[in-house]
Every structure is written in C-alpha cells, then in structure tokens.
Design brief:
By secondary structure, the chain is an all-alpha fold. Helices cover 59% and strands 1% of the residues. Among the domains are: 52 residues; 230 residues, Serine Threonine Protein Phosphatase 5, Tetratricopeptide repeat.
C-alpha cells in the first residue's frame, strides 16, 4: 500500500510499519534526469532540479514539459516551470473548486517561496483561509508554515490564474518584505510588465549580493531580468553581458551565447560588442563549433589588441585552446600569426594585462608547438608558476603539454581547490580534462579516473560534449593499460559519437591510441597496428601534432608483433624528423623505444639479463615522465613501485625485446 503525504491512509494507522520515502539526493536526481528520453541540459536542467526538490514524479513531469516546450526553460527562474497539460488540468480543477478566500491564500503561497511564507506576515495567508485547500490535499499547514504537498501542485496553481492576479499577489507579498531587500526586489521584478530603471537597479543590487555568496547562476538570472527591465539600450547590453559573465562560470554555454547575442543586438558600443563576441566565442568552443569559435576569437583579438588589450589577450588564449583541439596546421598558424602582432606597448599602458598576456603566450606556445624551443620555454614556465599563488589552470595545461608533469598536476589541483562554490564549477571542465591526462602521464591512474568522473559529471550537467568525450577517452586509456580491454570499445565509441573526429583531431588520435593498445592487450596485433597506424600518415605527418607522438612507441610495439618493421620504421623516422631534435624527455624516451623496437637486434642468450628497453625518468627529477609506453610490454604500465629500480642493469636502454610470444608480465620484468 502506498500513499502520498506523511500520514498513512485510513485504516492503516496502527499495526502496520511505515516507510517514509525521502526526496532523492541531488546526485540521484541527476541520474534520474539522465535516464529520461529527452534529458534537459544547462539552464533548464538546473531549473528542473531546483523545482522538483528531489521528487521523482516532478523530475519526470518537468523533463517531459521541457522536451515538449524548450522555450519554457528560458523563462525567468523566479517563476516555476509549468507542469504538463494533463496534470495541470487535474490540479486546476481542484483549485477552481475551492472557495474564494482559499484560492487567494493558495495563490499567495504559490507566488511566495518558503522564506517568504515563514518570515513575512502576509495578509490573507492564514491557516483558516488555507483549511479548504488542506482538506483537498493541496497543501499542508504546520508550525513551519504552509507547504505544498507536491512541487507540481505549486506550479499548477501558479499557472492556473492570469498574470494580473499573480502580479497582484507578488506586490502584496513584496509589501511585507521591506527588511529583505533581495526578496523585495525579486517580487517587484516578477510583478513588473513594463521597463523601469528603479526596479532594474534594485535587482542589480541583489545580483551583486548573490555573486558574493557564490551563487553565479542566481546572480546571472537577476542581471538578465534587470536587463529586461532596463529602459535604455546601453543599460540592457551592460546587464546582459554581466549576466553572460556569470553564466560562464556556471558552465552554461547555450545561455552565455543567448545573452551575448541579445547584447550585440542592442548596442553599437565597441567595447560592449567585442565583449559580447568574446563570450560568444567561448560558448562556441563548448558547443563543438570550433571553426566558428576560432574565426570569432581571432577577429576579436585583432580588433581589440590596440585599444582593449584585456579582451584581446583573453580571446587569443581561448583561440589557442581551439587550435590545440582541432590540431590543424592552418589553425595553429593563424593563432601564432595573430599572437606575433600582439606586442606589449613601450611603455605599457596602465590597463596592460601583464599576467594574462604572459600566460596566454605560454599557453599558445605549448598548444601550438609543444616539442620545440624547450630550452627557452621551460625556465620561463617555472618562473611564472613560482610567481603565482593562485594555481592558474592555463599554466597547468601548458605544463602538461610541455611535459612538466608534476607542475601539470599541482597547478590544476590548486585552481580547482579555489573554486568558491559548486555553482561556479562549470568553467572548470577544461581544468579537469588537463588534470586527468597529467595524472595518466605521471602514473596516478586512480586520480585520473576520479578526475574523469568529475569532468563527466560537469559535462552531463552543462552539455559540454568535448569535456565528456575527453573523460571517456581518458578512462578508456587507463582501462586499456590495466588490461580492461573489453571496456575500452564502448567508451571510445561513445566519445566518437559525441564529437566529430574529423574536426577534433586530438580526440581522434586519443581514440585510435586507446583502441590500439586495447587490441594489443588482447593479442590482436594486426588490428592494434592498423589502429595505431592512423596516428601518422605514410609520410610521417601526424594526425595531431601532440597526441600522435605519445603513441609512437606503442605503434612500434604493434609493428613488431604484426611483423610490419620496415613500414613502421619508415613512418616513425619521418614523423620524428618533423619535430625539434630536443623535444623533451618523454618524446626522447618514446622515440628511443620506438627505434629500439624497430631495429634488428642481436639475439640475447637465454641466461643474459633482460633490462627495460627504455630508460625511465631519472630519480630525483619529478617533472619527468613516469613511463615510456602504455602497453605494458617491456616498459611500465603500472602505478605500483617497480622493484627493478634497485637493479641498475634493468635500466639500460641497450636491450630490445625480439618478436615472440606475448609477454605475460608488466612492470619491465622479463617474460617467464
């Protein structure tokens, strides 16, 4: 027997145990939403979760409503989402059958929220007036105040009356909230039908308060509504861009683009227009429209460099991210050419963004040419990292690409630890992505999986498909290295279904790498070689200028097993000829291993020691890579300490394993 409410049905008051079902946790509510045929994303998802308050039926009903009417999710969040027509008709009929005072009191309760009902003495909102509604099962009244029996009841009552009646109820409640300026402003704004600077200013003040409390999404909604109530176009544009700036750390790319596009439509001011286009560029990145994002951001950087350097350096830094993800030579060249024209004035202007400019230069240098000119770049990277107390995420990502592994882990950790509140974690998706790969490179596989889960959760909540694909591929790489090859294919397939591999060469290279080492792990050597050979073309041109080279040793191992020595040796030498002669310790070791595997070695005697084929990072140098291969054949694929470090002869790079039976052990130990 089941029943709604906190009381058992008649006849079951005694001798029957009760099981009171509590609301779902936020995490479980999110899982239920993800299981729906049409999962709400971004801003609409946030509204559904907040309004449903963990009620499963409300979660399902509201997600169905958003699917049927996507525009409903873009309404101001001070108004509840309407229920589906079927449920609204049932509750509206019960509401209409109530006497007049009960309907008025129930509407006041629907218009108010819990803090208003408990802190304000609203005329007409009494237990006596609500008694008929309580008898009808629409509301409960106890010492804590009136509470609707179901979240959807409040929504249905709210939308059962015309706007004029709701506005009158709003103003009545606002009249009792003068000592709560934020709630007063919200109710006044919800009741307003025409623009008015007074109410817009009140709402802008509440947005600033919400921002200080860490409520980025709530502050963005307040700025957006303030913009709608602004009588002047400049005020509209300024407040819309303030809302977009706050929606950005909330991770809601579609909302950012909508707000910035609306600002563009109402202003001719150069600074406001460039800021709006910068926000649109950010939104395009996270909406998987990298070609449009790159063109937009480079254009903004070029136009802003002379007069608005802060905007220009922010734009070119984001363009560097696009150039890395797409991996095209044309995109990298366009970013570097624009960067070369963005020089510091002499003397620098008062508004010169020195830190932002230095970080953007370092990031672009790493993103577009991670293996070149390291003698100059690495010392500068460490000086910049030592000079910051904030753990800048962009520097951490640059450290990862430049193979400064420990720095690549430390800086993102520090950045993530300083996020002020859960509501502003949306723009941390790229930081989690960089951290997961840095953890893989340093053998922190458990932490890499944890970072991937965080990134996947953010991606699900904020519709960040690139972050989701990166999380799937990082998880696939770890599982492949741990021998879980049967779990790799679904993850790779899911990642490739999420993004366009033809446009995202970095993701495509990760996918081929994961699939290839999984095939090697299960003994499918020809398949593994075929997949890994996609990392380079026959002339040695890499599919991706960074990721492809991280798989060159595994490509060589697959070629040995598949007996494709000559073909792979030609490909590898042509590929390595394209990078700097001193590309860094990781690629140097990967190249040494690949070349060693692909040459024809003398056959060692059965009793001779068989050391690891590639020397690992020198002990005491924390920034070096943790291993040179990810297949586990001959060179480390394990996070556990390797006892071979106590045996110097095992660290020699002279020995190369010959083709033969599949190795049964990992961790650089001889095969049985």
């Amino acid at each position: 027997m089941s029943a709604r409410g906190n009381l058992p049905p008649a006849g079951f008051e005694r001798d029957f145990p009760d099981l009171l079902l509590k609301p779902l946790s936020t995490q479980d509510a999110g899982r239920l939403l993800d299981a729906q045929p049409h999962t709400p994303r971004g801003r609409a998802r946030e509204q559904v979760l907040a309004q449903a308050a963990g009620n499963p039926m409300a979660l399902i009903e509201l997600s169905q409503m958003i699917a049927a009417d996507p525009a409903a999710g873009r309404r101001w969040a001070a108004e509840p989402l309407p229920p589906t027509d079927r449920l609204a008709a049932i509750i509206a009929a019960r509401y209409g059958a109530l006497p007049g005072p009960a309907r008025e009191a129930l509407l006041l309760a629907a218009v108010a929220d819990s803090p208003d009902m408990t802190a304000a003495a609203v005329s007409g909102l009494t237990a006596a007036a609500l008694a008929p509604a309580e008898t009808a099962g629409l509301i409960r009244v106890d010492r804590s105040g009136p509470q609707f029996t179901h979240p959807l009841v409040r929504a249905a009552v709210y939308h059962a009356v015309p706007f004029a009646e709701r506005a009158a109820a709003r103003l009545k409640i606002a009249g009792s909230l003068h000592e709560q300026p934020d709630r007063y402003a919200w109710h006044r704004a919800a009741a307003a039908l025409e623009p008015g600077e007074h109410v817009a200013s009140l709402l802008e003040e509440t947005a600033a308060q919400a921002q200080r409390r860490g409520g980025a999404a709530a502050a963005a909604r307040a700025y957006e509504r303030a913009a709608e109530l602004s009588p002047g176009e400049r005020g509209q544009a300024r407040r819309l861009l303030a809302a977009a700036a706050l929606a950005l750390p909330a991770g809601q790319a579609d909302w950012v683009q909508e707000l910035a596009s609306r600002a563009l439509a109402v202003t001719e001011d150069l600074q406001l227009r460039l800021t709006a286009r910068l926000r649109i560029g950010w939104a395009l990145i996270w909406s998987n429209r990298h070609a449009d994002a790159l063109a937009t951001l480079i254009s903004v950087a070029q136009q802003a460099s002379a007069r608005l350097p802060g905007i220009a350096w922010d734009a070119i830094g984001q363009a560097g991210t696009v150039a890395y993800q797409t991996g095209t030579a044309e995109g990298r060249r366009a970013v570097r050419d624009t960067l070369d024209r963005m020089q510091q004035p002499a003397p620098p202007a008062a508004d010169w963004p020195a830190v932002l400019a230095d970080e953007s230069r370092m990031w672009i240098r790493a993103a577009t040419n991670p293996f070149g000119n390291r003698g100059e770049v690495i010392p500068r990277l460490h000086r910049m990292a030592d000079g910051t107390a904030d753990g800048h995420a962009r520097l951490g990502a640059a450290a990862w690409l430049l193979d400064e592994s420990e720095l690549a882990v430390r800086l993102p950790r520090e950045s993530l630890s300083r996020l002020p509140a859960p509501g502003v974690r949306g723009d941390s998706g790229a930081t989690w992505s960089a951290l997961q790969w840095a953890c893989i490179d340093t053998g922190r596989w458990d932490e890499a999986l944890a970072a991937s889960r965080e990134a996947a959760d953010l991606a699900a909540a904020y519709k960040m498909e690139a972050v989701a694909a990166s999380a799937d591929l990082a998880t696939a790489i770890v599982l492949a290295m741990r021998g879980g090859h049967d779990q790799v294919r679904p993850l790779v397939a899911n990642a490739l279904a999420t993004i366009d591999a033809a446009k995202y060469r970095g993701f495509a290279a990760r996918a081929w790498h994961a699939a290839g080492i999984a095939a090697l792990a299960e003994g499918s050597y020809l398949t593994g070689y075929a997949q890994l050979s996609h990392l380079f073309d026959a002339d040695g041109a890499p599919l991706h200028h960074h990721v492809s080279y991280l798989g060159i040793a595994d490509l060589a191992a697959a070629a040995v097993r598949a007996e494709r020595h000559l073909e792979a040796r030609t490909m590898a030498e042509r590929a390595l000829a394209r990078v700097d002669p001193a590309p860094g310790p990781r690629l140097e070791q990967l190249a040494a291993r690949a070349r060693g595997l692909l040459r024809s070695p003398p056959t060692p005697s059965p009793t001779s020691p068989r050391p690891c084929p590639a020397r690992l990072a020198t002990p005491g140098r924390p920034s070096g890579p943790s291993c040179t291969s990810t297949t586990g054949r001959g060179c480390g694929g394990s996070t556990t300490p390797n006892p071979s470090w106590r045996q110097p002869w095992r660290r020699s790079a002279a020995w190369v394993p010959r083709p033969g039976p599949r190795a049964r052990r990992r961790n650089c130990e001889p095969a049985a």
